[in-house]
């Protein structure tokens, strides 16, 4: 910790005073007093994110408007994008982001050329994307530089300071900007680079939240939990299956990362920022593998949130790379044009997670596995959490399970089933609020027959999700 304090003092000398955040667009975010969740000054904030990594380089403005419109309608309120994917990052029309591929020298022009419509400056385009997201009350979570740039020495200790200053001075007054330092990279590599980039941005824009986007099956907390620039933790659970990892697999059990972060001190919020993407092959690079389905996307979201995550990020293979047939840049066996893939079933079902969490007092919700009296492993595991006057239990397979009652006040409580697939409700009835009660979800026990048991005090004004 002492090293981080010294680093904070050192980098503060290189940056200018913090600007005041502009009073426009979405309200700025902050960590709740209990250190577990995010909020604005008015209300708690549930992060429902989408990975649109290559949006800045693959889509023009009309296409970007379409993307934002659809995702807004589907309930997403955060979009995760790469600013620099490679040193050659450019707009769709080919205008480069950097001079000679140097992150310390952004390619900035004096404005758009009226004689060349569509050939706008890369940074003007990013300004526009941030503004258009703000108009929809959406946040833009930006990865300043993908991890490969540091691995290859393109982003180094020297230019990380210049690049961080440029970004913070340009976007530090945007209340809807969130920073994802790193970028699919190992936290223990190039730490001086990531620390300098993080400290530089944070010192100029302290009102904006920041985390670290780690490589698969790792978490930001493993390396940077106590870093002064890290406001919340992020883990990447995807994209390997139990079968691909063997007997000690943990990737599909993404709830484990949330549980571990929940137990750390100092207390910080946590989220799965990259689970297995819908329609991407198991393991990404292994041929002839099955693809992750909507049911898997739902499971990752519900498991991590029940385990204490403050929200969840969804991803779809074709959308995250903005795939178009015939494109030479296609990866991971992409097979559906991005604008068609926006309507993937999992994308349309993510809103039901947000709706249920927001329908109840969420700022004091805590994970509580002691509620489940007969838990299983892997797909048979039931994840539970509770808040003031309510309790949730999520079963991915719809298997019957036993729950310990009495976590909410009252001699009797209302019990209902909530469907993560369509947001519908099925009443169970009023039950005694003591002892152990056996619950049998509707339908047959099988993968994807997922249900959430919702127990609450029926006399309270809560639990109106989808109604």
UniProtKB/TrEMBL annotation:
Q: Where is the Putative collagen-binding domain?
A: 366-456
**Record carries keyword ATP-binding:** no
* InterPro entries linked: Apiosidase-like_cat_dom, Collagen-bd_put, GH
Q: Which UniProt keywords apply?
A: Signal
**Domain Apiosidase-like catalytic: from-to ranges:** 33-363
Superkingdom, natural source: Bacteria
Q: What protein name applies here?
A: Glycoside hydrolase
Q: Which organism is it from?
A: Croceicoccus mobilis
User: What high-level taxonomic lineage is stated for the organism?
Assistant: Bacteria, Pseudomonadati, Pseudomonadota, Alphaproteobacteria, Sphingomonadales
């Amino acid at each position: 910790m002492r090293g981080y304090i010294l680093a904070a003092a050192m980098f503060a000398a290189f940056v200018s005073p913090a600007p005041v955040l502009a009073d426009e667009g979405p309200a700025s975010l902050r960590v709740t007093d209990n250190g577990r969740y995010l909020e604005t000054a008015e209300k708690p904030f549930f992060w429902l994110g989408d990975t649109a990594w290559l949006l800045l380089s693959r889509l023009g403005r009309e296409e970007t408007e379409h993307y934002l419109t659809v995702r807004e309608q589907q309930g997403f309120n955060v979009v995760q994008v790469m600013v620099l994917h490679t040193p050659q990052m450019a707009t769709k029309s080919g205008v480069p982001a950097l001079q000679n591929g140097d992150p310390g020298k952004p390619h900035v022009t004096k404005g758009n050329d009226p004689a060349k419509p569509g050939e706008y400056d890369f940074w003007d385009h990013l300004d526009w994307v941030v503004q258009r997201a703000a108009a929809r009350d959406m946040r833009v979570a930006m990865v300043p530089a993908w991890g490969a740039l540091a691995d290859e020495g393109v982003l180094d200790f020297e230019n990380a300071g210049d690049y961080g200053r440029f970004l913070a001075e340009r976007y530090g007054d945007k209340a809807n900007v969130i920073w994802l330092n790193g970028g699919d990279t190992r936290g223990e590599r190039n730490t001086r680079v990531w620390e300098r980039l993080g400290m530089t941005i944070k010192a100029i824009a302290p009102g904006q939240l920041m985390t670290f986007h780690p490589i698969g099956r790792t978490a930001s907390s493993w390396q940077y939990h106590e870093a002064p620039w890290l406001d919340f933790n992020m883990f990447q659970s995807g994209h390997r299956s139990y079968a691909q990892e063997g007997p000690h697999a943990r990737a599909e059990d993404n709830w484990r990362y949330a549980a571990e972060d929940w137990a750390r001190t100092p207390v910080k919020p946590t989220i799965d920022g990259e689970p297995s993407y819908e329609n991407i092959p198991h393991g990404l690079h292994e041929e002839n593998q099955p693809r992750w389905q909507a049911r898997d996307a739902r499971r990752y979201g519900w498991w991590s949130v029940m385990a204490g995550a403050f929200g969840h990020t969804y991803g779809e293979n074709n959308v995250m790379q903005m795939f178009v047939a015939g494109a030479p840049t296609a990866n991971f066996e992409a097979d559906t044009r991005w604008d068609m893939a926006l309507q993937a079933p999992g994308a349309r079902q993510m809103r039901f997670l947000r709706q249920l969490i927001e329908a109840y007092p969420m700022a004091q919700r805590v994970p509580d596995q002691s509620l489940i009296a007969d838990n299983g492993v892997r797909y048979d595991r039931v994840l539970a959490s509770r808040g003031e006057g309510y309790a949730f239990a999520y079963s991915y397979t719809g298997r019957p399970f036993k729950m310990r009652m009495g976590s909410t006040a009252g001699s009797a409580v209302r019990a209902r089933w909530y469907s993560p697939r369509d947001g519908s409700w099925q009443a169970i009835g009023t039950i005694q609020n003591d002892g152990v009660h056996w619950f049998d979800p509707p339908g047959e026990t099988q993968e994807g027959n997922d249900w959430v048991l919702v127990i609450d005090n029926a006399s309270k004004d809560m639990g109106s999700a989808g109604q």
